[in-house]
Amino acid sequence: MTGIIPVLITTFLASAVEAVEMVTIVVGVGATRGWRAVLIGVVAGFGVLAVLIVGLGAALTRIPIGPLRIVVGGLLLVFGLQWFRKGIRRVAARGLAGVQFNPDDEEREWTGDGFDWTGFVLSFKGVVLEGVEVVLIVVSFGASAGQLGAAVIGGAGAVVVIGGIGGVLHPFVTRIPRSFLQLVVGTLLTTFGTFWALEGIGIAWPGGDGAIVGLLLLYLLTASANIALVRRRTLVLAPERR
């Protein structure tokens, strides 16, 4: 039997990695789409997790996480690439100095009729997928070490701490111009979507979760290159229009 402290620290750190991904998606989508539907999605996601934990318990370790990653990763890619493209176009049009442009020209939060199902689904899926992975970490490591109680405390503590940090940072995130934030969130969703979808079909990423950083840098470079190309094309065509 492994000691309580090593189990507590290990499950906290491992769960914190998944919690960071969860909170990143929730805060990013909430800041761009509005918080009502996103928070409902978060509550619904945790509700589903609670039902799964109570109903299945240790049997959760036998859930096929691969298909779940494919579905969630594919969904994030669909929305992420759309926002990625729109963000590139808008930032290219206004420049990175868009932090200074007229706020009246900004795209506002989602204000359509009815319920924002896009915000709901993205936050719900992010919470469920990452929540299931936290549960798998807690159950598998806690059971094998004979310290399930300590593992539960470590996993739950990681979600609470990272969630609290996300809550503190949320006011600062909402001050970012929405067009630039859309590019940032689109890049993050595309990064996580690529990672999860390919991992779901069996691809082993070098460095494990550390590959997310490499993907993020790749998409940031892609965005920067495309912004530069669009702006250069606009500057070349501008004299001809005159």
Number of domains: 1
User: Which sheet architecture does the biggest sheet show?
Assistant: none
Average pLDDT score: 77
Instruction: Give the % helix.
Output: over 70%
- What Rg is obtained from the alpha carbons, in whole angstroms? 20 Å
The rough form would be described as globular
| Unreliable stretches covering 5 or more consecutive residues | 97-108
Give the topology string: H per helix, E per strand: HHHHHHH
Class from secondary-structure proportions: mainly alpha
What's the β-strand tally?
A: 0
Strand content: under 5%
- Determine the oligomeric state from the structure: single chain
The count of helical stretches stands at: 7
Measured distance between first and last alpha carbons: 78 Å
Topology:
Layout: H1 4-33, H2 35-56, H3 65-94, H4 117-145, H5 148-173, H6 178-200, H7 211-241
Helix pairs in contact: 1-2, 1-4, 1-5, 1-6, 2-4, 3-4, 3-6, 3-7, 4-5, 6-7
Summarize the structure.
The protein has 242 residues and is mainly α.
